[in-house]
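Cont'd.
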Amino acid sequence: MSHPLLAVENLRVTFPTSRGPMDVVRGISFSLGRERLGIVGESGSGKSMTGRSILKLIRSPGTVTADRLDFDGIDLLKQTEKAMRAIRGARISMVMQDPKFSLNPVMTVGEQIAEALITHQRLARREVRERVHAMLESVRISDPQRVAKLYPHEVSGGMGQRVMIAMMLIPEPDLLIADEPTSALDVSVQAQVLDIIDDLVRRKGMGLIFISHDLNLVSSYCDRILVMNSGRVVEECKAGELRGATHPYTRALISAVPRLNETRDELPVLDRSAWADQ
Amino acid sequence: MTALSLKNLDIFYGRTQITQAINLEIQEGESFALVGESGSGKSTVLKAIAGLAPEWTGSITAFGKPRGHGIDQNFSKTCQMVFQDPYGSLHPRKTVDAILSEPLSIHGIGNQNERVEDVLISVGLDRKFRFRFPHQLSGGQRQRVAIARALVLQPKLLLLDEPTSALDVSVQAEILNLLKRLRREQNLTFLMVTHNLPVVSFLCDRLAVMRHGRIVETADVAQLKQGALIEPYSRELIDISATHAT
């Protein structure tokens, strides 16, 4: 990749605690082209913090430092809060975990999606409406006119998440960060939502960072995978080569998942002490 | 002996009918799974058995004793429920000790100190957790407390509503192992609701597939493992799992 979309070098996220500063992300580096990158790890591994720090969404007292944090030639670390607002949504956007808590309960679905669009562009009202309907259709909502008028509590979890995706993709960003986009959803709806993300990302040639604790899911939707544990990247591999992963932590994560054709009487459990402080 | 028998169970929320003519027979010591997508009514069946959805017609019988519609103390002693979200199902201002003692007080059971200690050991929680509050525990530890709360009355039937779906895969493995061990040690009967077929394959003996409030198919787990379910809808569920799994 000659010109990476995103280049991260030695990224650190630090929070002060009563026992002194605590690094939750401890110097990770990666670069991303127009490809699909998966970040996997358990809770507390720092994977969500990594995603958030790219958008500079870490709130004080947390601090982000890096040797390099470049997005499409823009040095994100040097951007002011105002400049970041122009980047967030328009260039990089983020799909959060739970549609129940991430959608505004007192705005209709259509208004929220339109808001994402007109924050960044001046458009005629009719065109906005058309774009919203087209976007809802592209996330496979069959009746956009009706759904646009609904409030978030009137739609199901799966549909709520599709609305979120529509909202995040309507300004046509270059990079989409999806933080556990489907963990609040059923298996059957999960597949549908991921297929939609996958399809849109491919069609628009965007970069995708997919953050999840589910290795299988990540390996089937990404090109490349970073495995994180306690703030560090312990392994990086191609999605197809995940089965051949060598790091004991990655191997332990893989084998902890029950299989459809399960014959083991007991599932192997992670020995956390082994990787706690490497 | 039949641990749980549901006959023609129709459950309503107000005027809306949620399930239609549910019939199930679960033997003592068996682990049975109800699978299906959200809105299929699988959790509602558990709620009706636990007494949380009191508007139903038909019959619910556990170990030969029919259940009434109201609060039924004797029924609670034989049948307890574990909920999906360990963050929501524990009282935030009660210590683990208070959470585990409460069912004992309600049922007028003495020897509380010892029983709380025993149940903590059996779910693999160290004694130091006994006087902590839920917010001081991790998700997996909380789910252990929730399982301990259900077990402290020494029930014979455990209703499990997606007990691991809010947890990480690595923590999920720990909780699944725990449930398997407890079932073996205490000869428990499980009725588990889940949408995760690999979990069914690990923990259960039989399963029923639900859709739109009806049971469309009942099968052995051996059939699930071979992918030999008959109904098209069940096969669809298997296909979805298979494309994501190994």
